[in-house]
Amino acid sequence: MSFSDGDAVPRVVIVDDHRLFRSGVRGELGDAVECVGEAGDVDSAVQVIGETRPDLVLLDVHLPGGGGVEVLRRVLAQHPQIRFLALSVSDAAEDVIGVVRGGARGYVTKTISGGDLAQAIVRVADGDAVFSPRLAGFVLDAFSATDAPPVDPELDRLTQREREVLRLIARGYAYKEVAKELFISVKTVETHVSSVLRKLQLSNRHELSRWATARRLV
Amino acid sequence: MVSAPGPGASWSRTSDLDGRTPTRAATDGSGDRAVEPTAAGPPRLTRAVDGRLLGGIAAGLARHLGVDPVVVRLAFMALSVGGIGVAVYVALYFFTPLEETASEEEGGERSRRRGRDVSQLIAYVGLAAGIGVLFLLFGGVFDPFLWFLVFGALGGAILWRQANPAQRDEWMSSTVHRAGRRGLTRTGAGVLLIVVGVIGFLLFQQQLQEARAGLTFAFTLIAGISLVVAPWIVGLIRERDQERRERIRNAERAELAAHIHDSVLHTLTLIQRRAEDPREVQRLARVQERALRSWLYQRPADTETTVSPGLERVAAEVEEEHGVPIEVVCVGDCDIDDGLAAMLRAAREAMVNAAKYAGSDHISVFGEVEAEEVLVFVRDRGTGFDLDAVPDDRMGVRGSIIGRMERHGGAARLRTAPGEGTEVQLRMPRIPQL
Question: How many angstroms separate the CA of residue B424 from the nearest CA in chain A?
């Protein structure tokens, strides 16, 4: 099933501890998604997601009861097919890297416009990854520290092409513009980004976690 | 800190607090106690200005030797019994230079401290008079009675000092552990001296035999009372700790509340008042967001000498001036040299152009520090323009961006087309670090 064709709209659960923000997002997204549930803390989020089985969960990073990472851990153990898009006011590296390594397929900040958010939701619901410019910058930074030899070269290094794609995303290019710039298709860009996401989630590079904690800044 | 100050007094409060902390620490460590001995060795012998009672000799000597002034003062007093102490004091007074007064910044704080502690002076004079009387009574310096009396008096003095209000304040302060341990040794020394004094006095009076029964009774009584009182005292100490913790927490909460009040509430008020001007509202919100972020994730102030925070600072300035949100992403970091400083100025010019002319609702800035060169991209999604149509004499792009980069050995490229936005690409080679 593909949501990008417009055949169906993704069923979404919004998890955020600010009710005002939840209703704001709901209003902004309008008909682009079908909002099937809301939750304000970890326990109720796990419950609502278990009951409604949405296509996608919009997940706040900071939540009472253990944070977004805890929701990811508990839901993905039972429903690995559910996709998560992290949404946060925080740009802190440890938050971003933490939630992506916890299983989210994308990370956007709450300043994102409604249209961009809808686009990101469709993309993640289709199984692709969504990288904000800042997340792309973080990944480039984390993977560029090459003091230690990689444990698993396939997972611990970015290819030249992946690097180019990330660099363009960090420069503020949309996927379509990246594709045009590199003379490749949008699908190929998505493949590269998904591959980077996989590396980010699976790599055991110790620099990655060390880097994220060392950079406790915006 | 990278961000520009928020509206109103958002930063003055924190800096005020920051400024107050060391002053308070200084007050805690002030008075007539010794200055902390530093790694640079003992300071030159001078007459102290701070915490002096008479001429500042004892305080100065104590600082020089790294001991407590009380010790020096009592030593002088003991010597004075024979008259030598007075002579030494007077000689030192004339031959020792007065301490050079350090910075006058602390103004009132210092002048307050410079005043002599009259009550302490009276105490010493009283002690000296007492010793003199005893000297007359018992006759002769070597009378053991006198020495045991002196021991007892010394112990008593130390104990009394322990209980003075300034000391108690220090106990209550957050540096309780160090001060507490030092206080404990002092109390122990005081008790020991008194006990030695009392026993010695009795012994030499040949009254120990008679006093034994009384002493046993007294000790039993004291032990009994201690057993009864100890739990209560322990409870009191716990309560005090609890209270102190509560106070620290309250202070933190008050600081946070003050900060929120000065920054966030202030901005929210401004936003309500300017609600009809969306651009201004957005600008205010961004400025406040930035200020709050850097307050929360406190970035060390000295890092502004490197490219990444430098770029963010430039972006913050432009954003504040022109009200267009700028997102900065930076990969890697290095120190700013002349070429990179020029690059930051060129980047700033590019951001200003984008904010003023592009009509874009947001600008992306990406900086990348590589092994050989530093790259900066400033991109907007605005109107763009036809590069060929720009006359040669337009200073903005050619002079302040391309020219500036080339003069420093770098390069600048411009990519734009009507309707497709503009991207300025800056490239500056890195000078290898020696």
Answer: 11
Residue A102 corresponds to which amino acid? G
Sheet holding B411-416, edge to edge: B326-331, B363-369, B373-380, B422-429, B411-416
Give the span between the Cα atoms of A190 and B417, in whole angstroms: 26
In total, the C-beta contacts within 8 angstroms joining chain A to chain B are 45
Residues 6+ apart with CB under 8 A from A128: A105, A190, A193, A194
A218 interaction partners in chain B (CB closer than 8 Å): 293-294, 297, 299
Does A110 contact B at CB distance below 8 Å?
Answer: no
The dihedral of CA A216, B2, B3, B9: what is its sign? Answer: positive
DSSP string, A136-188: HHHHHHHHH--SSPPSSHHHH---HHHHHHHHHHHTT--HHHHHHHHT--HHH
Token pair for residue B412? Answer: 């600048």
Q: Is the dihedral of CA B309, B313, B318, B324 positive or negative?
A: positive
Q: Which stretches of B278-406 are assigned E, i.e. beta strand? A: 326-331, 363-369, 373-380
Closest chain A residue by Cα to residue B420: A177
Q: What are phi and psi of A198, to 5 degrees?
A: -60, -45
Closest of A144, A139, A150, A136 to residue A206, by C-alpha: A150
Question: Which of B9, B16, B2, B15 lies closest to B270, judged by CA?
Answer: B9
B293 touches chain A (CB under 8 A): yes
Place of tokens 């009200």: B323
pLDDT(A3) > 70: yes
pLDDT digits (tens, 9 = 90+) for A26-73: 888 888 888 898 998 899 999 999 999 999 999 988 888 888 888 998
Neighbours of B188 (CB within 10 A): 11
> Touching check for B368 and chain A: CB below 8 Å?
yes
Amino acid at A122: V
CA atoms within 13 A on the CB side of A186: 10
Q: Is B32 on the interface with A (CB under 8 A)?
A: no
Check whether A84 has a pLDDT greater than 90. yes
**3-state secondary structure string, B74-141?**
HHHHHHHCCCHHHHHHHHHHHHCCECCCCCCCCCHHHHHHHCCCHHHHHHHHHHHHHHHHHHHHHCCC
The residue-averaged pLDDT of B153-168 equals 61
**Residue B423 touches partner A, C-beta closer than 8 Å:** yes
